[in-house]
Fold this sequence. Notes:
The chain has helices spanning 31-34, 102-116, 144-156, 191-203, 214-226, 264-275, 279-286, 296-325, 345-353, 375-381, 386-392; strands at 11-12, 39-43, 46-51, 54-55, 57-61, 65-73, 79-88, 94-95, 98-99, 122-127, 132-140, 166-174, 181-190, 207-213, 234-239, 244-250, 253-260, 332-336, 357-359, 395-396. By secondary structure, the protein is α+β, with helices and mostly antiparallel strands. Adenosine-5'-triphosphate binds next to helix 6 and helix 7. Residues 62-65, 240-243, 263-265, 283, 286-287, 337-339, 341-342, 384 line the site of adenosine-5'-triphosphate.
Amino acid sequence: xxxxxxxxxxxxxxxxxxxxxxxxxxxxxxxxxxxxxxxxxxxxxxxxxxxxxxxxxxxxxxxxxxxxxxxxxxxxxxxxxxxxxxxxxxxxxxxxxxxxxxxxxxxxxxxxxxxxxxxxxxxxxxxxxxxxxxxxxxxxxxxxxxxxxxxxxxxxxxxxxxxxxxxxxxxxxxxxxxxxxxxxxxxxxxxxxxxxxxxxxxxxxxxxxxxxxxxxxxxxxxxxxxxxxxxxxxxxxxxxxxxxxxxxxxxxxxxxxxxxxxxxxxxxxxxxxxxxxxxxxxxxxxxxxxxxxxxxxxxxxxxxxxxxxxxxxxxxxxxxxxxxxxxxxxxxxxxxxxxxxxxxxxxxxxxxxxxxxxxxxxxxxxxxxxxxxxxxxxxxxxxxxxxxxxxxxxxxxx
Length: 398
Ligand SMILES: Nc1ncnc2c1ncn2[C@@H]1O[C@H](COP(=O)(O)OP(=O)(O)OP(=O)(O)O)[C@@H](O)[C@H]1O
Ligand SMILES: [Mg+2]
């Protein structure tokens, strides 16, 4: 199984912001070899040799709920679930991906730590949306230390924000040969946004050790659970409450990213309007609970209408990908996030795209330890834990 290897993180506090160990991607580097690697890492101006990487707890701070996943890697490179938990967040706490009420978020995180009893201090969190930029760029081949030096000004032309206002990371996807070009995957995110997410973790008494991008976490989760199939083009879609994170994989590598402002909230709002309900009632109804005399059957047409809108949005994105990437045609779609659980959404997508659409199981290859979580609850919410699983796979100092 592969995964967690070839993707940059927005910020790794142990590695240092601009210091970078390049050439780390590639099929030779597997999830199982990664913890055996000792590398030189640069902290600020200091090069620290032979430092072991550190396990992190995945903490997915979503706009509707905070999710926590702690994993353990065994000597044979397989993962086990140690703890999982989720706490609902009130909808005014995070709006359009921005933290509006940090104390609400901090309280929710603290509750989640208390409920799960997780002791590890080091968290991996993720951001997404307009303040994150991902680009695949071509640069003249150069040694890794030279690349680490020059990446800031090389990146400047690709990042639509002041380069001093972003955290930046990259990996070399293909080092190329001498005198040729190299392929580099670049990720940059606004410091302001990243710092807001770091601050809530700090205020909750833990260490925000690594900041990832939702779409990358999704990919890491997928690859560890399903392996890498270099022969097919797969669109991974994380459907949250307010945003859909799309990550398309081709030839076993990530090639396209987009965050679409559409999610579970659209279903809730439509139910609110159709049946004159408040937000909580509509949320419950959407999840199949009986509310105000409405049944699953009576809400079906409303959910179908919004599912068709979601399919149309996604279709535009897949069309754009196909038009700009030339030959690549998406072979299948894998959906995750709480929104993937909307009744029959997978069917509507299948009808629209005419290709297989599957709901991701983030625990397909990750068995749960006793007392990791209530098995019924875990089975029910698992698609919503995909990003948290991907974050829990990350390590610092790599
Ligand atoms: N059983 C279910 N049926 C329908 N919708 C569901 C179900 N369970 C969760 N959802 C919806 O999934 C969404 C939450 O998913 P998720 O936890 O992935 O989002 P988030 O990470 O909080 O949001 P975002 O990433 O957009 O900030 C909510 O809109 C919620 O109502
Ligand atoms: Mg989310």
